Amino acid sequence: MAEECVPVIRYEELPEGPVVVLLDQTRLPAEEAELVCTDVPALVDAICSLAVRGAPVLGIAGGYGVALAAARGFDVADAAEQLAHARPTAVNLAYGARRVEAAYREALGAGRGEAHAAAQALAEARALHREDAEASDRMAEHGSALLAELVPGGGMRVLTHCNTGRLVSGGSGTALAVLKAVHRAGELRRLWVGETRPLLQGARLTAYEAAEEGMAYSVLADGAAGSLFAAGEVDAVVVGADRIAADGSVANKVGTYSLAVLAGHHGVPFVVVAPVTTIDLDTASGSEIEVEQRAVYEVTEGPWARPLGPGAGPGGGPGGGPGLGPALAPVGAHAYNPAFDVTPSALVTAVVTDEGVASPVTPEGIAELCSTSRMRASRSADGMMKS
Ligand SMILES: CSC[C@@H](O)[C@@H](O)C(=O)COP(=O)(O)O
């Protein structure tokens, strides 16, 4: 099914020069429009406005962005820096940018010139893209096997949050890839899709992917989750992650922590699915994870709003005006708009990755997931994870 879809991201070498082409996720589900980025500032804008979003594909975007800078003769170190810092929470973004920058620098150091180094940078970005697609398949395999154990008898009703499918990945995704596998095995009775205020990645994007897959799904307002648990309608919660700290704390889309508390209270398994590239062993604990604070107008005007002028960007002033969206709150209303929250490992039943499963979620289990040869190889470049 995904084969017929507009690709989420691609690098193209056009006669007029290379470009990074994105499926513009701000316009979904209404239309499948593409956004063509010819330079790094355009790609950084696309990342900040969430035209491309979700941890794994942000890593791919970071990698292609550095390759684009190299191919167009821009300052590669500056490009990697801009991309790595475009958004702070999803560790994959810095990982992708730094990994491709390291490949470029290594090739340049070998003395075969700029063109060769640019070609090596692109090859590394393409490898990252391919590896991410393969990781989706392995997560789907590990995660669906785990769910079959956690929810015996099949016919499961699973609640998810935000969007974690093909739109966040080089392949079929993370948490939603697992749920697509469960669906294809005929074991998914209902997918509960949290709308995910304020930008509605659940209602706009997960529902769009669930419809593509022919899954039985229902969108619910975030505030309705509690009564859904109370009614006994949730057999498992399966979500993604933007960064997993060494202690197993999970940063994910805001609202995830509330779902974990509800799951714990109701004795429902709470499963996190992410590639090992989302684990950040350099971040010791959840309290060290930087949580992105976004513009007030996203809450006061909603996802239809567009940034316009000073104060409209992340951390901007009172809303009800700058984004040109319908008023959801009085003009001048203040808002609290963290993009993510952090769930402690004690509330997480299992972390599923492409390298296996950690359950219970302990620092040792998390370290073990990262100890494979693939991880050692992909993280060998100096200083790649830290900018
Ligand atoms: C697969 S990334 C983890 C997701 O659950 C979610 O937090 C996410 O998509 C990231 O949020 P976004 O702000 O849309 O980039």
TrEMBL record:
Pathway: Amino-acid biosynthesis; L-methionine biosynthesis via salvage pathway; L-methionine from S-methyl-5-thio-alpha-D-ribose 1-phosphate: step 1/6. Keywords: Amino-acid biosynthesis, Isomerase, Methionine biosynthesis. GO terms for molecular function: S-methyl-5-thioribose-1-phosphate isomerase activity. Its EC number is 5.3.1.23. It catalyses: 5-(methylsulfanyl)-alpha-D-ribose 1-phosphate = 5-(methylsulfanyl)-D-ribulose 1-phosphate. Signal peptide: none annotated. It comes from the Bacteria. Transmembrane segments: none annotated. Residues 304-325 are annotated as: Disordered. Catalyzes the interconversion of methylthioribose-1-phosphate (MTR-1-P) into methylthioribulose-1-phosphate (MTRu-1-P). HAMAP family: Salvage_MtnA. NCBIfam families: eIF-2B_rel, PRK05720.1, salvage_mtnA. This is Methylthioribose-1-phosphate isomerase.
